[in-house]
Amino acid sequence: MFASRLTHFHISEHFKLLFSKPLSLRRVSELCDLDCGPHGHCVDNACDCLPGWSGELCNLKQCDPRCNEHGQCKNGTCLCVTGWNGKHCTMEGCPNSCSGHGQCRVSNDAQWECQCYNGWDGKDCSVLLEQNCSDGRDNDKGTAYNIIFYFFLY
Questions:
Q1: How far apart are CA 77 and CA 105, in angstroms?
Q2: Domain limits of the chain?
Q3: If the chain, 154 residues long, is cut into consecutive pieces of 10 residues, what is the mean pLDDT of each piece?
Q4: In the beta sheet, which residues pair with residue 17?
Q5: Class of domain 63-92
Q6: What is the pLDDT, as a whole number, of residue 16?
């Protein structure tokens, strides 16, 4: 009920006053020259940003804190360092650094992955492929030898 009787009154460019009819004048807040945009408000001539925003004028979108481990935040987007994938760079794209048997490269779908050297396979290039098919041993623990043997017998 008292609030309906309040009126804003600017006494100068630096002060906004509230006039309450009929009795008093009181200072409400100091005016601010900064435009903090839609993501903050001015307090003591500085922007106080809403959660998830930063910068002098609250115009920089922050990333999830998980980005800091394997990425760099660029205006709300986490850019992953070599070997890491995902929205927050938390998914290992080149496990075990490709086990020393491959290189960590960006794939056609913009994801980091191991590209194994000849003779190596697996997500981390740790599987030694069959080098000599006639030695009777299955060096890569695959099923190719078993399938060939099956068809040979039947």
A1: 21
A2: 3-51, 63-92, 94-154
A3: 41 41 41 87 92 93 95 94 94 94 93 94 92 69 47 45
A4: 9, 27
A5: mainly beta
A6: 43
Q: In b/e form, how buried is each residue of 69-80, taking b as 16+ CB within 10 angstroms?
A: ebbebeeeebeb
Bridge partners (DSSP) of residue 60 are: 54
- Whether 63-92 shares its CATH topology with 94-154 is answered yes
Q: Distance between CA atoms of 1 and 136, rounded to whole angstroms?
A: 95
Question: Could you tell me if 114 and 97 are in contact, meaning their C-beta atoms sit under 8 angstroms apart?
Answer: no
What global pTM score does this model have?
Answer: 0.55
The CATH number of the structural domain formed by 94-154 is 2.10.25.10
Residues 21 and 40: their CA atoms lie apart, in Å, by 32
Three state DSSP letters for 89-136: CCEECCHHHHHHCEEEEECCCCCEEEEECCCEECCCCCEECCCCHHHC
- Short-list 95, 67, 65, CA closest to 81: 67
